[in-house]
Each structure stands twice: as C-alpha cells, then as structure tokens.
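User: I've been going back and forth on whether these two constructs are worth ordering. Before I decide, could you fold them both?

Assistant: Sure. I'll take them in the order you sent them. The first construct and its structure tokens:
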Amino acid sequence: MDELGIADTKGLFHILTDWFNRTEYGDKNKDVNFEVDNDSLFDAGCQKIKDKYIITMSRGTISCLDDFFLTSFTNPLYFLGSKKAYAINPDFPFDFFIRNEHAHVSPHLRYFDYRRQLFLKRTDKAERLWPFHFQGFPYGDENRVNFAFLFSNIALSWVFFHELAHIQLGHLDYLKAKSKMGENLKIKELKTIESANEHSESLAFDRILLEWEADAMATRLTLKFWETIDITSFIDLEDSILEYALLWRGVIDAIGGVILVFEKSRLIYGESNIYPSPRGRLYQVIDTLISYLQQKEKKEVLGGLVAVHSGLNDIGSSGQILISDDDAPDILSCLKSTDRIFYNGYGITSVLKRNIDIVNSEIDLLWPSLLVHNFVLNKETQLIMNKRWFDEPKNIKQLHFQKITEIQNFRPPLLNNLFSNK
C-alpha cells in the first residue's frame, strides 16, 4: 500500500464524512478525524480523546481488501481468457507474504496470484474453486478490475461507517461509563478494549450487542450512500431489474468479503470473540437490505431479492480462497503457544472451514426467502436452518431489547429509531 493508495482512501473517507453530515443522522458538532496507521493486520478502530474522535484503519485492511476482491474477480478463468500465453512474465518477482518487524504476515491471508499460478502450471485448483464465480458480472480485463476496486471501496466504506457508528451511537461513552476507565477509551476491532482492566470480561457480551448495532447502522449507511451509483458505467444493461440486482449484489459481496476476511484475521490474531458469528453478521446485512428495500419501487425490491441469492453464491465461492492447507505453516508461526495447541488439535483448515465456509448448502441460499415469504418447511430442514441462521440473531435481538434502554441514554433519540424494529 503506497502513499497514493492511502491518499485515495483518505479522500474517500472525507467524502463519506461530508455526506454523512448532510444526512438526518449527521452531527457536525462532533470533531471526527481519520488516520491510516502502519499496522499490517486487518484492523480498524475508534477512540475519543477529550472532545475529539479519531477513526483509524490499518494499511493491512486496505491492502487485504484490494487483494481479496482483485483475486476474486481476476481468477484465471475470467481475467486472462485467451491472453494466458502473453500474461506470464518470469522476470516479475512474486511473493505471497511480506513479514514486518513483529512477524505479522502482510497481507496475512493467502491469495492466488493468477500470473504466478499460471507460470507454475497450478491453475487446476483455481478452476475447481470458481466454476460459476461472480457469474453475471462483466468479463474482460478492464471491467473486472474496475468492479474489483469498486467492491473494495464499498467494503472500505462499510468499515468506516462501522467505526463511525460506534461514535455516533454513543458506544465509546457507554463503555467508558460501564468500565469506569479514564478519558482516552479506544475500541479496536481485534481486541476487547485497548486497555487491561478488571471489567473487560464483563463487557465482552455488551460488545457483541454494540457490534450488532454498529453493523446495522453501517449497512444502512452503505446502502444509502451507494444506491445512486450507475452500474451501467461498468456494463451495458437493458433490464432495469438486473441493474438493481447487480448493485445490491455488489453491496452484499463487498460487506460479506469484509466479514470473512476479518474473521480469518480474528481467528489468527484476535484476543477474544466479541462479535456475532459470521453467519449472524451476514444475516444482519441481508435483513437490513430487505427492510431497506421495502420502501422502494417494486423493481428495486425484485432486484434486491435476486441480489441476495446471487450474493450468497458469490460469498460461498470467494470464501474458498481464504481456506487453504498451504496457509498452515504461516498461521502457526503467528499464533500464541496456547492457540497453536488448539489449532493443532482441530486442524487449521477445519477451523477456517467451520468459521469461513458459511454458504455451502441449499439451506444457506434458501433462508433469506423466509424473511419475505412464509414457507412451510419440513421439521428437519427448519431445525437446521434455525441453528445455522436464525437462532443467534433471535437471541441477540431479545437481549438487545432488554439492554436498549441502558444503551440509548448515551446517544441522540433520533438514532434509536434505527433499532425500534430490531
């Protein structure tokens, strides 16, 4: 990630901040600043120093999202096409990993480099992974790369809005009051609270509820910000329903990519689990999208429903590039000794697959339909679907309802409307 890329990212967040302050939720009285730190981990955070708020994002986050979506779109099946013979440059230096002084791998996720894979004649695995990957999106080098960077920007905007939501929803002040900590409280996404104190464990469950809120607000803001993008600038479309389908599908794919990449980072480097599961977080995204579209025109609603099914297919496919036996040596070298014992016992690939391979059956594609229509399923299917997708969100919503009065004291009343139906 060079200085130009960081400047572009900061420019995007200035645009997002200015746009947010013009929405009904904006608060121009809050001094919110943005910084990019040099950490190679996939991480972001926010903090309050006196009356000043700071949102931070690591270089690793920006690099990893670019790599993830470029790899997803530029796999050998689609990106190279007939140009395979001309795409190989044996003099070009390739390296999957760059380690910093803390022995963190940057980017700390293994991706296919399509040129390197072709040079080494290792394309068979890629062809098995992506039989229908991102089907329906435009083919051709320039279009695919443009879409990859668009998705990366959508993903970065969701991360930014997630941290902004922590600030606007009063989460920092709430945690400060609950933990009795000093002035400079910081939320880091890979850690419970960036300060050791005796109240951290008791606050871990509160953090799950706060992350649930931040995800909900971030998704709604992301949908609202990106809904005016002209998809036809990337591909000519005659069907307006398909246009909306690609737009909402892109948002689902982008946010889903953040959830999966962050989950792998959390499994390797995170100190505790203070989040809903990846399925719980993805449920929140899709539930928010469907609720958001209920007030739109019929063609947008239909496009959204098409997008949900296609987006889940994309997430199921793209998630596979984060699961590889080849990752084992590098992951083990980054783990603490206690975690190393756990991963050795269960197998790294098994742990990654259980947490990242979250769309792998017909049930994982069917469940969003139940948010819109009342289908009668057989008992066994319903039980499996509840366990995989519905039980956790139901429990979080119930507990959130019990805690909402306590949490909402730390934010403007207008923002409580975001959760009145949750």
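The second construct, handled the same way:
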Amino acid sequence: MNDLGAFASRHPVRNQRRWGIATQGAMVGLVSTALLVVLVLHPVWSGGRLVGLLLVGVTVGFLVAAVQATEAVRGGPSESFEIHEHGIAHATKSGRRAWSWEQITRIHRLSHPGRFPRNGWDFRCTVRFDDGSTIQFNGLTVDAHVVAAALLDHRPDALDTGEVIRGWRFWRWVLPFVTAGCVWIVVAIFRMLNDDVVVVEVSPGFHREVPRFDDSEIALFAIAALVCIVGLALSLSYLAVGLRAQLRRR
C-alpha cells in the first residue's frame, strides 16, 4: 500500500440514501408491473398509451433500483474517501485501496446544479489511475466538491477534456440507427395495441367487436416494447454523454 503521508480529511458515502432511492425505484417498478399485468389480463381495459406509460415506469423503476442497490452493496455501510498529503484512498467493505497523486491519469468531472441533489445526481467525478483502477463518487459523498478540488489541485493536468466513451467513433454512427429502430418498433406496437378491436360477423346481419390479440400476444408485445424502451434509454444516454464530450473538445 502506498505511503500517503499525513491524513487530511475523510469523506463518508451516504449509502443508506442509496437504499432509499433503490426502494423508491423498486416500488415504482412493482406498481407499474402490477398495473401492466391487470391490463394484459383484461384487454377490454387496455390502451396503448397507458401500456407505454407503465412500461416506462417498469423500466425506469427497476433500472434505478438495480443501479443504486448494486452501488450500495459494493460500497458497504462504511464506504469513504480519504484525502492524504500525498494521495487518496478509497475504503469499501472489500477493503482499502490507495493511490498517490502521481498515479492519477484522468479526472472527469460533471456538475449539474439542481438535478436531484438529494439523490446525489447533481455532481459526479470519475478518476482513473495508471494501474487501471477507477473510482467514482457523486453528491452522496460528504463534501464531494472538496474531494474533487483536492484531486484537481494536485493533478490539474489530468483533467479530462477529451473523449470519455470507448469506441465513440464507431458508436456515434451506429446508435442513431439503433435509436430510430427502437422508436419505430415501440410506436408500431403502441399503435397496434390502440387498434386492438376488430369487427367480425357472428351471424348474417349481426356483427360483433372482438379483441384482435389474445392475452399471450399482448404479453409478447409488452415484453418487446420493454426491451426496446431499455435499448432506447441506453442509446440516448450514450449519445448524450458522447456528444457532450465531443462539444467540450472543440
């Protein structure tokens, strides 16, 4: 372990807040799933717009819950960052890792004032080291801006002003097509679900409206739409980060 010199400050991570966010996300996902099941089992009540809204709730709710729970478990209740005279240390339930200031190769800092500060989403900093290790912290870290300032004070030359996503030159051309394809599929599914009634002739001169799709088909449409919505969200996020980095480089 590196000799980091005199201890300067300790900055705990409020992982208990992550569990709260994960619980809220899971509740949104569960409620949306329950309502979606009701609509699938009762096609007479179903509507494409409502199904789409519930699919968004399922996707966003469970995705947020999974990410926050994973980070909380990985860090543990005593996760913290320590600033020392000659470097930084990161303590988690798996142990303690330490690096000198000279080992820092890149510092990528993002600030979004007012974007859910209670959840820590208003600030994020990623640090990479010459041994391939990476640490990340956001607004849930106590005095996160102080930690970032200490990093930049000692290594201002490591501030990232270039590309933050590997393979961006390839993905910047592919992802727009993926995004357009996902949008087309989702819109097509919702239009079909909105027009899920057909008129059939039961007997001469007597017609009756019946559902076009049975319960199993509606369930398959819902799963396909859910997969496309997840792909759409990931593609848009990837494009947003990459384009922002490209604009900063100009």
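Notes on the second construct follow. The mean pLDDT is 82. The first helix runs from residue 15 to 41.
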